[in-house]
Design a protein that fits this description.
This protein has about 190 residues and is of the alpha/beta class. It has 6 helices and 8 strands; from the N terminus they run βαααβββαβαββαβ.
């Protein structure tokens, strides 16, 4: 079983002031990529949206994170240099029909082709969008994935609004129980140890 971090780059600071006010609802990790890796994470969850210039931006829902493509490529380059297998789940962070355009799909496809070429040791997978969960890019065979974090588990109540609370209370048990899937995605990976 491979441990994966859900919304791996959500430890980053939001780009705009008003996003900082609701950051706690979208923050799913508090450690950076290298720290997550050092704790045993081997699958990272990358969510991208594209601006009008077709530049990839890291998002979770309505929150855009303050991170440049160069910084993202530095993370991917570092992961690409590691000796063991590293998986990257790429999601097209589009959640409504208005933003789900041919241009956004083509930008997503171009981005995937670029990162696959630049970082050949990484195992990229998924390629779905969050609007209709269709594949905007087909990688072929994907690993199986079990997602165990507040927004997909019950009961929701406060846990869905404060993801760290669910992780703090449940991660050790979830990892101990394991899964029959290839990958187990969790929030706040530091609460496993």
């Amino acid at each position: 079983m491979i441990i994966g971090s859900h919304n791996s780059w959500s430890y980053l600071p939001p780009k705009k002031f008003w996003m900082k006010l609701i950051k706690f609802t979208a923050k799913c990790q508090s450690l950076n990529i290298k720290e997550q890796y050092k704790l045993g994470v081997r699958c990272f969850d990358l969510r991208v949206r594209f601006n009008k210039d077709k530049i990839a931006k890291i998002y979770h829902g309505i929150i855009e994170y303050n991170y440049s493509p160069i910084e993202l490529y530095e993370d991917l380059s570092w992961l690409n240099k590691q000796s063991d297998k590293v998986y990257i789940r790429i999601l097209h962070e589009i959640r409504n029909k208005k933003n789900y355009t041919i241009d956004s799909i083509n930008s997503f496809i171009d981005f995937i082709e670029l990162v696959k070429f630049r970082f050949p040791k990484l195992i990229f997978w998924c390629g779905r969008n969050l609007y209709n969960w269709e594949k905007d890019y087909d990688f072929g065979e994907d690993p199986t994935c079990d997602e165990k974090y507040a927004s997909v588990c019950s009961p929701k109540l406060i846990d869905d609004w404060i993801p760290w609370w669910f992780a703090f209370r449940n991660n050790k048990k979830i990892v101990k129980e394991g899964t029959d899937k290839d990958i187990l995605l969790i929030d706040f990976v530091e609460y496993v140890h």
